[in-house]
Amino acid sequence: MARNKEALVLVLDVGPTMHAILPQIEKVCSMLIEKKLIYSKSDEVGVVLFGTEATENELTKEVGGYEHITVLRHIKVVDGDLLQALQNLPRESVDGDFLDAIVVGMDMLIKKFGPTNKGKKRLCLITNALHPIKDPYEGTKEDQVSTIASQMMAQGMKMDCVIARLTQNMEANKRIMEENDLLLRVFSNKSSTKTVYVESPTKLLGALRTRNISPVTIYRGDLELSPKLNIKVWVYKKTSEEKFPTLKRYSNKAPPTDKFATHEVKVDYEYKSIEDPTRVVPPEQRIKGYRYGPQVVPISSAELEAVKFKPDKSVKLLGFANASNIMRHYYMKDVNIFIAEPGNAKAILAVSALARAMKEMMKVAIVRCVWRQGQGNVVVGVLTPNVSDNENIPDSFCFNVLPFAEDVREFQFPSFSNLPSSMQPNQQQQEAADRLVRMLDLALLGKEEILQPDFTPNPILERFYRYLELKSKDKDAAVPPLDETLKKITEPDPEILFQNKSVIEDFRRCFELKENPKLKKSTRRLLKEKPSGSDDEREALGNGSDAQPMDAIEYPSKIKTEKIGDANPVQDFEAMMSRRDSPEWVSKAIQYMKDKVFELVENSCEGDSYQKALECLTALRKGCILEQEPKQFNDFILHLYKFCQQKDLKSFCEYLASHGITLISKTEAADSEVTEDEAKTFIVKSEQGF
Q1: What subcellular compartments does it reside in (predicted)?
Q2: For residue 475, how many other CB atoms are within 10 A of its CB?
Q3: If one looks up domain 215-245+260-408 in CATH, what number appears?
Q4: Candidate CATH numbers 3.40.50.720, 1.10.1600.10, 3.40.50.9100, 1.20.5.420; the one for domain 423-510
């Protein structure tokens, strides 16, 4: 068996109490096989059904017993026939014995592979465990389970148990359920068995590990606490985004009779000279260049390699910080887990002591990481203690990458605390919102939380795998609708919404939406024309909860900027537009921005400042719409086009046309004299020339 090749036996309960959830079991097993056909096409899978009227397995023929167990498929490499069989599981009428079925599955693996390939053999049991197992000939049921668990360990087998109890009457089977749960715990304690209980179809889809990913360390070495104190650690990925399978280019040009054709498409690139398009430029005559102002600075591969920072492989502790100082939004990329070197008792003890001390003091560690020798970058991250509740699992650390200053994005928004009391929720509104939150709580009283990440599959990926399977059978297959079970991941539960309809209606009534009519003039312009403290001023500002401080929403900045600079002209323009100490700042900001656009266009060198001019012009257009000053923008844009025609700057006109910059029409601003059709034809006219 290959290094990552897995042998799996599915042990499925098809008895009468499983009929309601067999459609979901068919889906999850089909998804498992679909993923294996994509990622692990050499894996081998067998299927055992229990609860069948018929009996068809080798142990029955050899030693007797093991009744109502049928081997649906012997262990073979995955193929389309297996997928078809799992999509049409039989509905049987006999209560099965899951312990006998496990033994049959183990017998299949032992006969196929013997004691070899340890760790690559897996059983997967799916049942509701509601029916009693037979009493053994000798000893107790616990003794029997312990013997089977020991044999599993000796053979290097693992087992996943998915106990699906969705709609069954728990009270009627309480004694049997408790006995079976006890036996399953014996498996978990004495073998490599993972048991998951599911109460919803959604969790069932995510409970079965459908893709086997071998753990691979990204770092093995020292966690350096000081020059004289190191701890041996291994680092694994804890979470990593699952992406779509890579689509490959495929050629059908190979002869149909060629059985060894790979249908591979190879891509070659040729670089040709601008002066002589027929001449191919060889690699030794090509060099990379980087823009630096108006010029391009050439840098050879050797120079680029020499300038790279090449630190030695290491993980070094920089210090400790309060856990409260590391904000959740600082976390970047995937999550890694630091564990002590397996088998190293001193390292395990040191990691445990450090993790427990950090948790007690509410501290986190800041570390500098270079995962491999010659790595071109340094990562700074935070280690969060992960103290284990299970005595068999050692303590560890979770690692998250932290941003550098260049990675942080600062966006200023007005604080809700600065809004007047009339624009903050009253007690009735707050209580309605509280009831809405409680109503949509994912962890309802007495029930487990739904949509847990460990058991929630990606609906987009699952739908893709399903469509790929349909496409393999029929090239003209239509894209299927989203499965109802997967839809529950992307939409609120309709049953919960129906049961709490009154809560939703109360919330809607407390926050009634009203149409905000277009104002002929902005609030600032209206105040400019009315004396301070007049009735008209109060009317313009509005009364009660309908008041809308437009500019506080449109321009969040409160910096008192008095001119538009070169570094951040758009930000300066928005800051000036948001000033409230004088109504003159709007007209000043518009004029300053016009001047800045002219300056950027006139002083451009081969269009190097066109992008910045476009950003300024876009901000100016938005500001003129918000302040109901369309004429100022429309007159300016016409003047700008004529200016570019005179100064032989037609390239800028073409640049604006390609980005759809046009006049402000009546539909955008009521004061505009330009119709929508005129605004649309403006681009065409500008391209043809005035």
Answers
A1: Nucleus
A2: 7
A3: 2.40.290.10
A4: 1.10.1600.10
Single out the residue of 344, 381, 333 nearest to residue 234, CA to CA: 344
Enumerate residues 6+ apart whose C-beta is below 8 A from 421: none
CB contact at 8 A, 415 and 158: no
**Residue 520 corresponds to which amino acid?**
K
Q: What is the pLDDT of residues 542-598, one digit of tens each?
A: 443 333 333 333 444 445 677 888 888 888 888 888 876 777 888 888 888 888 888
Helix (H, G, I), strand (E, B) or coil at 378: coil
6-207, CATH topology level: Rossmann fold (3.40.50)
Look up residue 227 and give its two tokens.
């020059």
- C-beta of residue 45 within 8 angstroms of C-beta of residue 73: yes
Residue 649, CA distances (Å) to 518, 547, 637, 643, 646 in order: 38, 46, 14, 8, 8
Count CB-CB contacts under 10 A for residue 631. Answer: 15
State the pLDDT at residue 552: 36
The pLDDT score that the predictor gives to residue 69 is 92
The closest of 334, 454, 340 to 400, measured between CA atoms, is 334
Fold match, 215-245+260-408 / 569-688:
no
Which residue reads 């939703």 in tokens? 504
**pLDDT of 657:** 82
pLDDT of residue 249: 81
pLDDT at 542: 42
Cβ neighbours of residue 276 under 8 Å, at least 6 residues apart?
none
Burial profile 155-164: b = 16 or more Cβ within 10 angstroms, e = fewer:
bbbbbbbbbb
Place of tokens 């059983």: 123
Backbone angles phi, psi at 305, to 5 degrees: -70, -35
- C-alpha to C-alpha distance for 519 and 524, rounded to whole angstroms: 11
Nearest to 465 by CA among 443, 483, 449: 483
- pLDDT confidence of residue 354: 96
Rounded Cα distance, 599 and 561, in Å: 20
The secondary structure of 523-569, three-state, reads HHHHHHHCCCCCHHHHHHHCCHHHCCCHHHHHCCCCCCCCCCCCCCH
Q: Within 10 Å of residue 398's Cβ, how many Cβ atoms?
A: 18
User: In this structure, are residues 211 and 35 in contact, taking their beta carbons and an 8 Å threshold?
Assistant: yes
pLDDT score at 658: 82
Write the DSSP assignment of 256-300 as a string of letters: TT-TT---B-------B-SS-TTSBPPGGG--EEEEETTEEEEE-
Contacts of 389 (CB under 8 A, 6+ apart): none
Number of H helices, E strands in the chain: 23, 15
Q: Which CATH architecture has domain 569-688?
A: Alpha Horseshoe (1.25)
Residue type (1 letter), 88: N
pLDDT of residue 230: 94
Handedness of CA 326, 327, 332, 334 (dihedral sign): positive
Res 556: pLDDT: 45
Task: Give every residue of the chain whose pLDDT is below 70, as ranges.
Answer: 1-4, 117-119, 167-172, 412-414, 418-419, 445-446, 514-560, 580, 683-690
What would you report as the CA-atom Rg of the chain, rounded to the nearest whole angstrom?
A: 34
Longest dimension (CA), the chain: 104
**Of 199, 208, 202, which is closest to residue 444 (Cα–Cα)?**
199
Give the residue extent of every domain in the chain. Answer: 6-207, 215-245+260-408, 423-510, 569-688
Helix axes 584-602, 630-646, angle to 10 degrees: 20
Q: 45 is written with which tokens? A: 């899978």
